[in-house]
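step: validate -> pass
step: tokenize input -> pass
step: predict -> running
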Amino acid sequence: MTHAAKTPPKRLVGCELIDLAARSPAAFVDVCEKRYHDRLDRVVETALERKVQIIMLTGPSAAGKTTTAHKLAERIAARGMRSAVMSLDDFFVGEGRYPKQPDGSDDYECVEALDLPVLRSCLASLARTGRCEAPIFSFLSQRPTGETRTVDARGGIAVVEGLHAFNPALQVDALPAGTALHLYAGLREEYAAPDGARVLATRDIRLARRLTRDFLFRGHDADFTLGLWPHVCASEDKYIKAFKNRADLVIDTSFSYEVCLWEHYTQQMHAEAHARRLRDLCARFAAFPPLGGTVVPADSMLREFIGQKTGDTDKK
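step: predict -> pass
step: emit ->
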């Protein structure tokens, strides 16, 4: 199988343009949200034109893979076709079976942390019949539950999302030609000062997304997330970006207005071990006009990180 898609270059947006657009917050948000929805529609149109049965979706941490997968499935269903989402996280082998890192700790990031025989069987079944019985994993007990759920995309498309969706170990290339489309989700927008110097990179924005989600909904303080971030980035380089050239399509999950959101959330956090890193990140976002979470539509992909709209205090 040949994957010929080229990753579009990152866009460098001037901070002064963000300042200007933020003077009309509702219109600014609407334009950004519509652009994302248009990108989703183009992916669905391509998948339908190619008559694929599976979309393999990957991307780095906090790129919005999960929400993007479900929004693609919704759009496929809106065309009158069956759709389903299957997460690779449900294929973890579980505590006691994880491969070990050199220091003896469990390695959750490597592809061997997934039950590859079961996963390959599910993918083959989706290609052959459009349905499969996928395992259900309990993150509370860190083990498979022993139960399954039916993933039914007969006559339609199954969206399979996760860290290792592009990894050749899944043997997607062994499926009949034309079965799968490889889709890479990532931010393509960075921001520059009036002199052209880059002030915000995509990795900074993804870190702000993850910090906010971890702080609000996962019980992790800023020190925890900032301490883990270098390992997260190293894993992305090793397990995602190494296979990025397998992408058939790239979907941009940037929202220009979100740079106006993250000061509101990051300034609520406290760090000791990584205080300087947190201060630096907050300062980068302080350069933009502030917008609160209430401007974010209830169905926005960004709700994956800030939760549901309930006024000034957002909840999952």
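step: describe -> The chain has one domain: 11-306.
step: cleanup -> pass
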